Amino acid sequence: MAVKTDQNYTLRQLILYFFKLGYSGFGGPVALVGYMHRDLVETRKWISEEEYKEGLALAQLAPGPLAAQLGIYLGYVHYGIIGASLCGMAFIIPSFVMVVLLGIAYKIYGGLPWMQAVFYGVGASVIGIIAMSSYKLTIKSVGKINLQSVSQNWMLWLFYILGITITVITKAENVLFFVTAGIIYMIVKAPPDWIRKPQTVNSILLLAGIGFWSYESGTLWDIALFFAEAGAFVFGSGLAIVPFLHGGVVVDHQWLTEHQFVDAVAVAMITPGPVVITVGFIGYLVAGFPGACVAALATFLPCYLLTVIPAPYFRKYGHNQSIKAFVDGITAAVIGALVGAVVIIGTRSITDIPTILIAIATVFVILYFKKVQEPYIIIVAAIIGLILKTLI
Questions:
Q1: How many Cα atoms sit within 13 Å of 10 on the Cβ side?
Q2: What is the maximum span of the chain, computed from C-alpha positions, in angstroms?
Q3: Considering the entire predicted model, what is its pTM?
């Protein structure tokens, strides 16, 4: 793909942005895709609204971690395969290093009880952050929350509400629903020629003492197969992959105990970057540093390939009115599903009056103290969680 010459940023700047997001972007996939929209589309204007929506639609349609796929696609927009590869690595590596270090600490001390106390505060604060991100995405992509917007874009609002409902009920993100929403909206708003004129149909194929180097080759192969399956066949966000990981890691292979798996999920939530990076932590506990590397590579390689391979077609045909309508329909359904994910995560993190107050305070700070960045809010919430758990 030829590199565009009209972009107002360099590849180095974009790589540094994703590197920073990888070590400071808390809140999971919903928050991370919100940060990318706020920073790259609204503030810096490096990526157009249309390019962002194309990337979000492709990331949701393809299996694998949502935020990582969107980051890979945004790197591809102006810098092709090189941009996609470097931005993807810059986004993933910081959090991978963090979870490996936490894995070392976990093996040394036999558990992380303090992490549960930290997550008590962080989890509640994260809900406030991702709720605000979801609200902003809703306003931008579906419409303002008023009668005029609902009447004008009633079909998008219908997909949005259905996306919330289906996600909350099933606790998973249904890719078939996303595709159906896109097709219906395309047919209604901008039917392609092959629908208006069936005779012109064209087919388009779119460290030994601490377990650092302790592993068995057979186990590494099992890890590679299992996590490749997770990366290739689980759609949506970290929310969707957790049940799949639990079934394989705890039930089938019995690599971790139930308590260890809960700690692994906690690691994912209190570290920045993609939630799915917890696979590095799990891999380390099972087979040391080689296990962490194999688990992470096996999980993220399929999502990388399933993003960059169809990306040229999204870029080439994205300006077609039918494709735009298809993307708009999918986007409304996707954002609804993300809001549904907020509801599910919220019911697990907001468990009592202190967590309710932390979540409300987070929303208040984001609304009225815009210069306060999310990592500082997370740190304060972690301290509050430690204090409250210590006192209780």
A1: 3
A2: 74
A3: 0.66
